[in-house]
Amino acid sequence: MRIGLLTEGGYPYVGGDAGLWCDRLVRGLAQHEFDVYALSRGRQQEDAGRVPLPPQVDRVRTAPLWRAEGDGVAYGRRARRRFTEYYGELVEALSGGPGAASGTGPAQQADRFGNALYGLAELARDEGGLVGALRSDTALRTLERACRAPGAPRTAREARVADLLTVTAHLERALRPLSLDWYGADGLGAADLCHATAGGTAALPGLLARHLCDVPLLVTEYGVQLRSHYLALGPDAAAPAVRALLAAFHGLLAAEVYRRATLLTPGNAHARRWQERCGAERARIRTVHPGMDASPFTEVGESPDRADPHTLVWVGRVEPAKDLVSLLHAFAEVRKEEPKARLRIVGTPVGPEGEAYLGHCRVLAAQLFPDEAEGVHAVGDNPVSFEEIGGPEVPALPDAYAGAAVVVLSSVVEGFPNTLVEAMFSGRATVSTDVGAVVEVIGGTGLVVPPRNPRALAEACVALMRDPERRERLGAAARARALELFTVEQNIEAFDGIYLEIVSHCPVRRVVLDEDGDPLPFAAPAETHVPVHWTGPMARERVREASGRPPGDPVRATSGAVSEGTL
């Protein structure tokens, strides 16, 4: 089948989110054809280049969200009236104005938002673009009327001109996918299935393909986009009116994605709960854990005797959410009970904030653990070391886990804990904080403590350090669990089954023929197949009759090398 893979800020570029996962998925499903539709976030990402693409990727089309270019479309009177109507309905849904308040609940508000969104998409298709209209004074005045209208919340009514300009610019950027030319018979309209690799803006082209072309939509979320937007709109990030309006937009967009998607595949129970709270039906949700490559950790996982019984190891990105401060205070308690204990912090800081946080942690470690020496003539040594992967102490990632008696995760915020799975692949016992999907991942194969509780973290570490048999038992159980649930193979197998499930339940929109003029497998759902030979016009007409498709010329399958259309 032909899959339209929708990405934002990731695959097929070298850097970005979900790039490695998408590459493994595409390579693992070589029996299908993929067209990649990528929304890029910046010039630096595009200049970094792309990963090598396998032959099953037939085409790549990119659209930059970071570039502010006009479409040169001038609307006539009727088009301007349509834009004002649809855009006004959309911003009324955001501001809670009289139009939004006329309904009886969130369902009516979601309907208004969806109708306005699809109306704008149809207008963009008919007129050739929407960018200029979204940047116009008409858009700004329409937003201002909605915020000043009677019945609008106080936060919206107090919006200043600068706030309205900020919101208008954000909406223009978020709605740029509506103006793309991806939705015809030579684009997403030719796909058997759209697979969005994230929610929010990344799924917006899939929503439009479903509305305009009736293409089924699969949405995978390994990180909840709505939650990320809420966190980014903190008190210090924007004015209250901006936060309220943008939070409403992203909330309604997420609800529309969850409502219209054929299936949703969250990566863990944490993401699943977010989807259900935003209105997703449980019957349309399938949890598919991220797939990780277990092969680099095979040697370490099969050699538990390489571990140093006195060493705790932390691995990850150095940033405040990882709460290394609590870990250092917990280790101070561990040293009181186990004087020979050592702590290795292996990781790379993320951005300027991460660099500053790493410096703070180094200072704290020096204060908590002054250099120790066995005698007056010996050189002191600090029991806490800060290391990076690729350095002399840790040449490769598996080496970080090889010497660990216990692997520690001290985060206060966590999505899917990749480093925890790597420790499980390595057969190491773990102590983790109860955040994100940690409990779901670890099951009963490790110790879990409350976040921001150094004493509980220390007690769990000491308990495992003093019981080598328990450590070995938990490590073996963790490795077996990870190999069963979190490998690349299980991830690919799950999505292959989901692709077939979706296509088998969707109506036939066309008959696709191969080079010999015979219908391709899976171009039609299984229930439409009839017991006839797949040759001749009469057989093809029977397929149309069985599927309910009106007579017409079949679509011939496309093939060829990778091509690119950059918008």
Description:
Helices cover 45% and strands 13% of the residues. It is an alpha/beta fold and 567 residues long. The strands form 3 sheets. Strands 6-5-4-1-2-3-15 form a 7-stranded parallel β-sheet. Strands 9-8-7-10-11-12 form a 6-stranded parallel β-sheet, with helices on both faces. It has a two-stranded parallel ribbon with strand order 13-14. β13 (512-513), α23 and β14 (555-556) form a beta-alpha-beta unit.
Low-confidence stretches: 527-553, 558-567
Strand content: 5-15%
Number of helices: 23
* Neighbour order of strands in the largest sheet: 6-5-4-1-2-3-15
What is the strand and helix layout of this fold?
Blueprint: E1 2-8, H1 19-28, E2 33-40, H2 43-47, E3 57-64, H3 77-95, H4 98-101, H5 106-127, H6 131-134, H7 137-148, H8 154-157, H9 161-174, E4 193-196, H10 204-213, E5 217-221, H11 225-232, H12 240-260, E6 263-266, H13 269-277, H14 298-301, E7 311-318, H15 324-337, E8 342-349, H16 351-368, E9 384-387, H17 397-402, E10 406-409, H18 418-425, E11 429-433, H19 438-442, E12 447-449, H20 454-465, H21 468-485, H22 488-504, E13 512-513, H23 536-547, E14 555-556, E15 563-566
Parallel strand pairs: 1-2, 1-4, 2-3, 3-15, 4-5, 5-6, 7-8, 7-10, 8-9, 10-11, 11-12, 13-14
